[in-house]
Specification:
Radius of gyration: 24 Å
Low-confidence stretches: 1-8, 134-145
CATH architecture of the largest domain: 3-Layer(aba) Sandwich
Helix content: 40-55%
Number of helices: 14
CATH class of the largest domain: Alpha Beta
Shape: globular
Mean pLDDT: 81
Number of domains: 4
Strand order of the largest sheet: 6-7-5-8-9-11-10
Length: 411
């Protein structure tokens, strides 16, 4: 077996078009460059039937082997899922390292994680990918785990225990914020839409931002206070992408919980991107997967400075609710309109309700304590509780839909 390089250097890219609507080659080139690869060339092939052994067939594989040898290629990056056997067979045929799209994204995340939690989450995602047969990922503990499945399983259990402890600490902090209660506004969006630049513009936090995919990985929270305005916590999260590996969604579920628990999502859209509508669809799909599809949203059409006729504005529906804010995080144009829209939403304010809970509503009682500030509680002689709670309106409305609280109101 040939020696596999530990990092992608000179990369040959292969996009396999099967007519199933998979993402194109341009974004895959961006992914490769974000991973630090030097892209030698990017090729596209059309296959109506995929070869079970080599994905692309013996003839095309032989052609690629020639390119690899002639151009000194270190790694072939394939914009299509590879089975473990296909990956191994291609590596034998081409005499170079082979990674599919999932492996490449995991590789980028391994480079970008900075916090202890982020590193653990990335390693867990890598190990889950290895457990399905994927190999060749760089990251902590790689060599031992690649050769010993027993140690791999042991390491997975160890990381899960550590992440559970981190998740408990995060949940305690989240419950503390909920009891104050200070609303949370979370930034979401396709990677490279400008979320971190917008976060910096709104908070002055100095979060790293660059024109590359997944420039920032670890979540950041900052408190925003304005005179005579509602105070809120702004959360920046990892950017989404089409076909985001399931291993990453699963590993980052606790981090993405900040999104699920937010009172408002600012869905940042690259208004200058020609495929921004497809990016919106992909973000909505991930939000559904993590259970955040019901959280209220305002679309933030960013990078207005890159449009020829772009002017800051607010789009509203027939009832006057804000749908979209057009702005530029880079220049600052329209940021005042965005803050006004956020404040208008938050000015719905904190509400108080008194509820009469039956004895069977123990879970609802616990969720009220976790989600809001309980002002008073007393037991009812016939069983159950009379409880008075205060929380942001959006959070109460979401809990009401989930638990049927309308029938328990005692106002």
């Amino acid at each position: 077996m040939f020696e596999r390089p530990q990092a992608g250097e000179r990369a040959l890219l292969l996009h396999v078009d099967t007519g199933d609507g998979s993402e194109g080659l341009d974004e895959f080139v961006q992914l490769a460059e974000s991973a630090g690869a030097e892209v030698v060339d990017a090729l596209a092939v059309t296959r109506t039937r995929l070869d079970p052994r080599l994905l692309i067939g013996q003839g095309k594989a032989a052609e690629l082997a020639g390119r690899v040898a002639d151009d000194g290629v270190d790694v072939l990056l394939v914009n299509h899922p590879l089975s473990p056997s296909q990956e191994r067979n291609l590596e034998r045929e081409l005499k170079c390292r082979v990674l599919d799209r999932t492996g490449l994204i995991l590789d980028i995340f391994a480079q970008r994680a900075r916090t202890h939690e982020g590193k653990l989450q990335v390693e867990l995602a890598q190990l889950r990918h290895m457990a399905t047969g994927g190999i060749g990922l760089r990251g902590p503990g790689e060599t031992q785990l690649e050769t010993d499945r027993r140690l791999l399983d042991q390491r997975v259990r160890q990381i899960r225990r550590r992440l559970e402890r981190v998740d408990r600490q995060r949940s305690q902090g989240r419950r503390g914020r909920q009891r104050v209660p200070v609303p949370t506004v979370s930034l979401v969006g396709y990677t490279n839409a400008g979320k971190s630049t917008l976060f910096n513009r709104l908070t002055g936090a100095g979060v790293y931002a660059a024109d590359q995919l997944f420039a920032t990985l670890d979540p950041t929270l900052r408190r925003i206070e304005q005179p005579q305005r509602e105070t809120f916590v702004l959360a920046d999260t990892v950017g989404f992408i089409s076909d985001l590996p399931h291993e990453l969604v699963a590993a980052f579920r606790s981090t993405l919980q900040e999104t699920c628990e937010a009172q408002l999502l600012l869905h940042v859209v690259d208004a200058a991107a020609p495929d921004h509508l497809e990016a919106i669809t992909q973000v909505e799909a991930v939000l559904r997967e993590i259970g955040a599809e019901e959280v209220p949203q305002i679309a933030v059409y960013n990078k207005l400075d890159l449009l020829d006729d772009g002017e800051p504005r607010v789009d509203r529906d027939a009832d006057g609710r804000v749908l979209r804010v057009w702005c530029s995080a880079s220049s600052g144009a329209g940021i005042d309109l965005l803050l006004e829209a956020v404040q208008a939403f938050l000015s719905q304010g904190v509400i108080r309700h008194r509820l009469r809970l039956p004895p069977s509503a123990g879970r609802v009682r616990a969720r009220l304590f976790d989600s809001g500030r309980v002002l008073g509680e007393k037991a009812i002689d016939t069983g159950g509780w009379l409880i008075e709670v205060e929380m942001p309106r959006g959070r109460f409305d979401r809990l009401a839909r989930q638990e049927g609280l309308e029938a328990m109101l005692d106002d």
